[in-house]
Amino acid sequence: MKCHVCKTGDATVHLTQIVNGKVQKVDLCEACAKEKGVTNPTELSISDLLFGLEQEDAGTPPRASAESRCPSCEMKLSDFRRAARLGCPRCYEAFSDALAPMLKGMHKGRQHLGKIPPGGGDETAKGDSLMRLRQELLAAVKAENFEAAARLRDQIKILEQRADAEEPRP
Amino acid sequence: MSGAKKIEADGIVITSRVRLARNLQGHSFPGWSRKPERLQLLELLRPSVEALPEMKGGVCHAMDALPALDKQILVEKHLISREHAGRNIGSAVVISRDETFSVMINEEDHLRMQAIRPGLCLEKVYALIDGVDTRLAGALPFAFSPKLGYLTACPTNVGTGMRASAMLHLPALVLADHMDKIISAVGKLGLAVRGLYGEGTEALGNLFQISNQMTLGEREAEIVGRLEKVVSEIVRHEINARATLLEKTPRMLYDHIGRAYGVLAHARIISSKECINLLSMIQLGVALDAFGGLNAEDVEQLFVETQPAHLQRDQGHSRLSAEERDALRADLVRPVIARCKAPKFGIPPPTEEPPKTT
Questions:
Q1: Any bridge partners for residue B162, and if so which?
Q2: Disulfide check for B137: which of A21, A102, A114, A117 has CB 3.0–4.6 Å away?
Q3: For residue B24, what is the DSSP state?
Q4: A77-100: per-residue pLDDT in tens?
Q5: C-beta separation of A103 from B159 below 8 A
Q6: Residues in chain B within 8 Å Cβ distance of A128
Q7: With 60 as the cut, is the pLDDT of residue A50 above it?
Q8: What is the pLDDT of residue A126?
Q9: Three-class SS state of B344
Q10: B333 neighbors B275 (Cβ within 8 angstroms)
Q11: What is the dihedral of CA B28, B32, B38, B40, to 10 degrees?
Q12: Which residue in chain B is spatially nearest to A104 when comparing CA positions?
């Protein structure tokens, strides 16, 4: 069996992982396994490995944009595909087209619903009604005001569905 | 299980752990930045981390100053990742005095902070690390987008940046051949099950790690709450599997525990794989009250102390070969196991009559 990454070495490291009922398998040679940090399976997620490799699967945008660059850190899309890691926080905007289908496959949703840093992080956060509602929701939950929290949650759901509907599906 | 002791949930969940990935606005991620930028960030981040009340009396190790063996010990204690152990100048780790908290600086992300505690306490552990995060966020501008949440070097972590996990010891589910069912059921809930020390799904020592896979599109409390619920459910299944084994196939169960005792009490050479698998059976025996004078903590201690770097630690500078480690491992375990009496099993199995030897 040949290595999934370099296609030349004999695969000696075999990984299997089941996520959402789907079985993912990767076979790697020792050198590639080491390079990818696959010495400790506890810290490894196979999707970490896979998406950086071949992207021929359906849903991947055309490769024509492969040379777009992040204006902030100068990472190229091809660098990202090779390293399987982004260069800087701004890369998320720079490569948003390539990332959208990837994120969709990896995660439960496309909108962050979790913690917001005190102060709301970026400037863009301010004035965003969804953002404000989420902050209020967090505050309501903290205060154990569950009635208000439930109302806020429903408002947020409606706004999100609207936002999702406006956004063209990839 | 008539007449048998109540089987306790203690010792099934070994640890609960939550880690958060955070990065600073306006800086390249460590894997893409040059050395001067990494050093500059380390200078900036280290004092903020060390100033945390949680880190009072803690230690900070610069990765370039830490010998390989010490790094390996931190890996075996789950205080740093293997990837971080491979890092050098420009990376560091700050560890709290009681080792509940550790913050890796310039790992894959600028900050990887974790809290780890024994037993099943994911919600509490999340609250602990959430406090650390909130304090740090007061001093450091984290990269955050209203749409995608916390921005991380790897898109698999974007959103909450959170990976919550529990380490479980599930010998009865493995003996009863139920793990495949559990793994596929858990997988359907967006959680992943991995063997702790094994490759792929092979789990050495019947140890499994269950963690969330998805970080975007769900609140932390939901993710942690679901994981906690699923883990409690698995614990219940493990307890049931133990009861069923005791009732239906006690001879098989006692055979496994008895053999583990026999080998560990007399072996002179033992590999880490065999050792961890047999210790798992001893631990099951302890839970079923088969051993007087041996408690779960003693066995857990052996699990840790027989890991390669821990074995090497007390050997000064002479690097042990694999064969020497196997001998040393056997010498370490043997007296502890041999000290306690051969296993006695509480309930006599229905077929306790010894087979007639003619």
A1: B20
A2: A117
A3: B
A4: 999 988 899 999 999 999 999 999
A5: no
A6: 146
A7: no
A8: 39
A9: coil
A10: yes
A11: -40
A12: B216
Q: Which residues of B295-322 are buried (b: 16+ CB within 10 A; e: fewer)?
A: ebebbbebbebbbbbbbbeeeeeeeeee
3-state helix, strand, coil split of chain B in percent (to 5) is 45, 15, 40
Task: Find tokens 């047999």 and name the residue.
Answer: B278
| Rounded CA separation A89/A125 (Å) | 15
Least confident of B19-33, B114-128, B173-187, B342-356: B342-356
pLDDT, one tens digit per residue, over B249-299 is: 999 999 999 999 999 999 999 998 999 999 999 999 999 989 988 888 899
Chain B hits for A98, CB-CB cut-off 8 Å, are none
Structure-model confidence comparison of residues B293 and B14, the more confident one: B14
- ipTM of the modeled complex: 0.84
Assess contact for A13 and A28: CB atoms under 8 A.
yes
Contacts of A112 in chain B (CB under 8 A): 145-150, 159-160, 216-217
Average pLDDT over residues A143-167: 71
Q: How many contacts (CB atoms, under 8 Å) link A and B? A: 184
Angle between helices B272-287 and B296-305 in degrees, nearest 10: 170
Beta strands per DSSP E along B170-293: 191-195, 207-212
**Which H or E run contains B223?**
helix B220-248
pLDDT value of position B128 = 98
Q: Is B72 helix (H, G, I), strand (E, B) or coil?
A: helix
Of A20, A42, A48, the CB nearest to B190: A20
B30 and B107 Cβ atoms separated by less than 8 Å: yes
Residue numbers in A near B142 (CB within 8 A): 117, 121
Instruction: Evaluate whether B329 touches B306 at the Cβ level (below 8 Å).
Output: yes
pLDDT at residue B317 in the model: 61
| pLDDT exceeds 70 at position B6 | no
Other beta carbons within 10 Å of A161:
10
Alpha-carbon gap, residue B133 to B19, rounded angstroms: 10
**Count of positions (residues) in chain A:** 170
In this prediction, residue A88 carries a pLDDT of: 96
Nearest-angstrom CA–CA distance, B144 and B214: 17
Which of B87, B219, B307 is best to mutate for the A interface (most A CBs within 10 A)?
B219
CB nearest to A112's CB, from B130, B188, B216: B216
Helices (H), B86-187: 122-139, 171-175, 179-187
Q: State the SS3 of chain A.
A: CECCCCCCCECCEEEEEEECCEEEEEEECHHHHHHCCCCCHHHCCHHHHHCCCCCCCCCCCCHHHHHCECCCCCCEHHHHHHHCCCCCCCHHHHCHHHHHHHHHHHCCCCCCCCCCCCCCCCHHHCCCHHHHHHHHHHHHHHCCCHHHHHHHHHHHHHHHHHHHHHCCCC
